[in-house]
């Protein structure tokens, strides 16, 4: 998402929900507690900084995480922000996940566990 000097990240997120996710009246359905861009503003850099958002209600976050197909071919992506501890646990589980997928089963990594 291109950066503007005086942008309001909450408005940007709600606008994205309405335009890309097709959520009508996102401002009344989703409450954003905090939102900001990561890192310092890099003058002259064409690559925009990632956006971090904390939602008041779990349902808003889950809607976005569970509907990444809405962002297909848009250049946007969505992911959860995990603590370093969870990141390390997930790294250890990925070899197990790859083995399960090779066997033909559907599997995914949750918070510190592998699900088959």
UniProtKB/TrEMBL annotation:
Biased-composition ranges for Basic and acidic residues? 28-46
| Record region (Disordered) | 28-49
The identity of this protein, by name, is Uncharacterized protein
């Amino acid at each position: 998402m291109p950066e503007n000097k005086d942008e309001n990240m909450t408005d940007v997120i709600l606008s994205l929900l309405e335009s890309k996710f097709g959520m009508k009246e996102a401002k009344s359905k989703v409450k954003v507690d905090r939102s900001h861009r990561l890192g310092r503003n890099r003058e002259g850099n064409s690559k925009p900084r990632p956006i971090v958002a904390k939602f008041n209600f779990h349902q808003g976050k889950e809607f976005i995480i569970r509907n990444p197909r809405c962002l297909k071919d848009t250049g946007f992506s969505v992911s959860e922000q995990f603590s370093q501890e969870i990141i390390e646990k997930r790294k250890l589980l990925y070899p197990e996940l790859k083995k399960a997928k090779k066997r033909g089963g559907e599997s995914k990594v949750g918070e510190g566990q592998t699900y088959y």
